[in-house]
Amino acid sequence: MSTTVISHDAAHHGHDHHHETFLTKYVFSQDHKMIAKQFLITGIVMAVFAMLLSILFRIQLAWPDAEFPILEVFLGKWAEGGRIRPDFFLSLVTIHGTMMVFFVLTAGLSGTFSNLLIPYQLGARDMASPLMNMLSYWFFFTACVIMVASFFVESGPASAGWTIYPPLSAVPTAIPGSGLGMTLWLISMALFIASQVLGGVNYISTVLNMRTKGMELWKMPLTIWAFFLTAIVGLLSFPVLVSAVVLLFFDRSVGTSFYLSDLVVGGTILPNEGGSPILFQHLFWFLGHPEVYIVVMPALGLTSEVISTNSRKPIFGYHAMVYSLVGITVLSFIVWGHHMFVTGMSPFLGGVFMITTLIIAVPSAVKAFNYIATLWRGNIRFTPAMMFAIGMVSFFVSGGLTGLYLGNAALDINLHDTYFVVAHFHLVMGSASIFGMLSGVYHWYPKMFGRMMDERLGYFHFWLTFIGAYLVFFPMHFMGIDGVPRRYYAFTEFPFMEKWVSVNILVTWAAIVSAVGQIAFLWNFFASIWCGKRAPQNPWNSNTLEWTTPVEHIHGNWPGEIPSVYRWPYDYSKPGHDADFIPQTVPHSQTMSSNLIHDWEGNEYGIAAQRVYDKEHNRETEG
Amino acid sequence: MELKLTMNNAELRNEDELKSRKAKKFNLWLGMIGMFMMFAALSSGFIVYTASGVDKGIKTILPYAFIYSTAAIVLSSITMHLAYNAVKANQTGKQKMFLLITIVLGVVFFFLQVNAWSVLFERGITFVNSNASQSFIYVFTGLHLAHIIAGVLVLVRCFIGAARNIAPSDNLFRMEIAAIFWHFLDLLWIYIYVFLLLNQ
């Protein structure tokens, strides 16, 4: 079934080519590199779409009483008289959240970089099952199309929030968005889950089965560890969302009462009785919380790699980095209750969830400190990728700190569902993951397209986005502490919120400016595909295997045999070596001048040879 | 030289085939973990829901049909194993016979489940129900039946392969995959049944 031609004979490989048509090369491709690009470009399109939605609702929040006739031109009845309608406002925040969380930061991030880097960095010709990989992309693409299509439905797209809590989402007559729009949302999500499970199974299987010779688990780059653990989290949590959605579907369409009870809509009493909306929240957040780690862990992995490479230093605490990822993976499944502190949960249970939640601060802090320790006294190269990686750490820290407040069951009574929460997760998972993703794009662009991106535009993009994101999300903390609830349509309707309208104007302008700044990225990204400087073999002097593949993509990744791996990926600036990096493919026998005894991992011949060499060259090494 | 090269390629392809089969089998295990998680979620949903009030719960004796269907699916697991043994011993005739029995038992299982539904329905335990613990019975069995349909299709594909005399190694691999999946469905049903029995 695998279509990859696997011939260890390079000369033979050349002429034995299957004929590729446009359709099999660019559309229904089973090649991991092409699928990665498909995921990335679809992700970028979705990100732009979701960003535009956010600009629309930001306009409403900043100028709730003003009229913008141009909105009516584009949105028609959704913005009659140039003002966004309340139910459309709800649709905007719902679809913005759904697209960003699932389509951009889950599929766009994991889909792109797991597909690109797992085979490349592990030394595999392709994924374990290229067919499943292709299906994964096309399920995802269909999910995107259906979600966008819901904007063309008479009653509008889903509008119950990205968490689709019943009863709002379960009663089709409750609001316009709970009708056909919600059905489309559910169909789209079902396809998306299928895509994620297919993809995730493939990532796990590839990591465990397809590593090249010498690539032990403890020699894998941290990117791969992150993708691997992310895929495990996804495999265990997405099926739970299936169950939740199946029950929701029955409540909506068949009339069961899993989630519904004692409802009166428009003066009529609904027949549903005995259900529990809290049940949905349990099931949803059992996925939903791991989901935020699905979003952030790949970004952490990419950041590790970029920071180490560009600091010209080994990553600080490689094992600690892996164990903290494992810790986050395990803990992510036992903290979901912190989303439900105020649902009438017993205070004891709330206390348990509070403790597990606060414990997550430990592995997260380990990671943050290790990034900073890696930068410490590094020979830092401030490439655009590096800037975004450092920005990622910044957001991860400043957003993570507020997690300690929100994770506290007592404080959460005050803070839940306010702008404080919005600020928290937009920094720690939104901005941090987007920055991790952009860092990855700038860093691996040469590998994806064989060209370099423009650096100056990169810096311009970074500063606009970095400052813009802080200006947008930082003021929201203060609104939240003042008790301003999220998802409210007009701040002018409540006297205590009116004073925040002026802050909203600042936030909206910051959002607009940084949204315009993304044009720099889009131009840079798409123009460089054709007009960028040609990429050298190893533009960042990096150690990992993907930089040993030819710049021009070929089927099967390596023309000859797959290289073997002899060392971990972080031998940067190793004392005694003439270059400041030693690729993973260089055996220790070629680097006698920089080896330490423990590099030989107990190989007696190697240690003996090393001792002779050290004696001859008057070199001191540790025992 | 030319000959050596082709042989080399054939060997490589073979090795590659083995590796890819190993990966596919591994994918199946991962997929089964995913499927199990779905039912684990339903189980915990059931527990949380049922604990929410004294008027909740199954509140009936599960239909006897479930005992018969359990017997049918356990038997089908045994015949599946026999079919798999037959393939390993290269007895295609025996394989086809046992495979056919397994398929028939799968179909019997399907109808016994549907029959159990009608028994429940006659008792007034409907799917649309203000005591959703009872609706859960339908969800558990229904989702399991959806998997059974998929399983039967996999078995039919095996049968067609065997009937068309595909290459023995392909036949064996198909059977291996189908057997793992079918045993999983069997165990899954036993889990569901025991879970429901403990809560009735």
UniProtKB/TrEMBL annotation, chain A:
<feature type="transmembrane region" description="Helical">
    <location>
        <begin position="385"/>
        <end position="407"/>
    </location>
</feature>
<feature type="transmembrane region" description="Helical">
    <location>
        <begin position="315"/>
        <end position="336"/>
    </location>
</feature>
<feature type="transmembrane region" description="Helical">
    <location>
        <begin position="88"/>
        <end position="113"/>
    </location>
</feature>
<dbReference type="GO" id="GO:0016020">
    <property type="term" value="C:membrane"/>
</dbReference>
<dbReference type="InterPro" id="IPR036927">
    <property type="entry name" value="Cyt_c_oxase-like_su1_sf"/>
</dbReference>
<feature type="transmembrane region" description="Helical">
    <location>
        <begin position="39"/>
        <end position="59"/>
    </location>
</feature>
<keyword id="KW-0679">Respiratory chain</keyword>
<keyword id="KW-0249">Electron transport</keyword>
<feature type="transmembrane region" description="Helical">
    <location>
        <begin position="134"/>
        <end position="153"/>
    </location>
</feature>
<feature type="transmembrane region" description="Helical">
    <location>
        <begin position="283"/>
        <end position="303"/>
    </location>
</feature>
<dbReference type="InterPro" id="IPR023615">
    <property type="entry name" value="Cyt_c_Oxase_su1_BS"/>
</dbReference>
<feature type="transmembrane region" description="Helical">
    <location>
        <begin position="348"/>
        <end position="373"/>
    </location>
</feature>
<keyword id="KW-0349">Heme</keyword>
<keyword id="KW-0813">Transport</keyword>
<dbReference type="GO" id="GO:0020037">
    <property type="term" value="F:heme binding"/>
</dbReference>
<feature type="domain" description="Cytochrome oxidase subunit I profile">
    <location>
        <begin position="22"/>
        <end position="549"/>
    </location>
</feature>
<dbReference type="InterPro" id="IPR000883">
    <property type="entry name" value="Cyt_C_Oxase_1"/>
</dbReference>
<dbReference type="GO" id="GO:0015990">
    <property type="term" value="P:electron transport coupled proton transport"/>
</dbReference>
<feature type="transmembrane region" description="Helical">
    <location>
        <begin position="182"/>
        <end position="204"/>
    </location>
</feature>
<dbReference type="Pfam" id="PF00115">
    <property type="entry name" value="COX1"/>
</dbReference>
<dbReference type="GO" id="GO:0009060">
    <property type="term" value="P:aerobic respiration"/>
</dbReference>
<comment type="similarity">
    <text>Belongs to the heme-copper respiratory oxidase family.</text>
</comment>
From TrEMBL, chain B:
<dbReference type="GO" id="GO:0004129">
    <property type="term" value="F:cytochrome-c oxidase activity"/>
</dbReference>
<comment type="similarity">
    <text>Belongs to the cytochrome c oxidase subunit 3 family.</text>
</comment>
<keyword id="KW-0812">Transmembrane</keyword>
<protein>
    <submittedName>
        <fullName>Heme-copper oxidase subunit III</fullName>
    </submittedName>
</protein>
<feature type="transmembrane region" description="Helical">
    <location>
        <begin position="61"/>
        <end position="85"/>
    </location>
</feature>
<dbReference type="Pfam" id="PF00510">
    <property type="entry name" value="COX3"/>
</dbReference>
<dbReference type="InterPro" id="IPR013833">
    <property type="entry name" value="Cyt_c_oxidase_su3_a-hlx"/>
</dbReference>
<keyword id="KW-1003">Cell membrane</keyword>
<dbReference type="InterPro" id="IPR024791">
    <property type="entry name" value="Cyt_c/ubiquinol_Oxase_su3"/>
</dbReference>
<feature type="transmembrane region" description="Helical">
    <location>
        <begin position="136"/>
        <end position="156"/>
    </location>
</feature>
<feature type="domain" description="Heme-copper oxidase subunit III family profile">
    <location>
        <begin position="1"/>
        <end position="200"/>
    </location>
</feature>
<keyword id="KW-1133">Transmembrane helix</keyword>
<feature type="transmembrane region" description="Helical">
    <location>
        <begin position="97"/>
        <end position="116"/>
    </location>
</feature>
<dbReference type="GO" id="GO:0005886">
    <property type="term" value="C:plasma membrane"/>
</dbReference>
<dbReference type="InterPro" id="IPR035973">
    <property type="entry name" value="Cyt_c_oxidase_su3-like_sf"/>
</dbReference>
<feature type="transmembrane region" description="Helical">
    <location>
        <begin position="28"/>
        <end position="49"/>
    </location>
</feature>
<dbReference type="GO" id="GO:0019646">
    <property type="term" value="P:aerobic electron transport chain"/>
</dbReference>
<keyword id="KW-0472">Membrane</keyword>
<dbReference type="InterPro" id="IPR000298">
    <property type="entry name" value="Cyt_c_oxidase-like_su3"/>
</dbReference>
<feature type="transmembrane region" description="Helical">
    <location>
        <begin position="177"/>
        <end position="198"/>
    </location>
</feature>
